[in-house]
Design goal:
By secondary structure, the protein is mainly alpha-helical. The protein folds into two domains: 1-48, no CATH class; 49-79. It is 58% helix and 0% strand. The chain has four helices and no strands.
Length: 79
């Protein structure tokens, strides 16, 4: 058992140690669990995300069913 701050520092040190491990040929980087997902989340929040045409169609249809204009709700009416 340890204080939360101490645990956080130990985890940060462990992640740093993992990131400093020599890489195998052809490997660009090592990731700890969840790291790729957090980076993808940050990128999507900054840049947005492309949706497949069938997903957009489904969202538009769902919007129509509840009386919602998809383009307006998504801020796309001026595009």
């Amino acid at each position: 058992m340890m204080q939360g701050g101490q645990f956080a520092r130990r985890m940060e040190a462990l992640v740093d140690e993992i990131h400093q491990v020599p890489l195998a040929d052809g490997t660009e980087r090592l990731f700890v669990p969840g790291e790729m997902e957090w980076e993808r989340h940050a990128r999507v929040m900054k840049e947005g995300m492309l949706l497949a045409p069938d997903v957009v169609g489904s969202l538009k249809e769902a919007g129509r069913m509840v009386g919602l204009d998809f383009e307006k709700a998504a801020g796309l009416e001026d595009l």
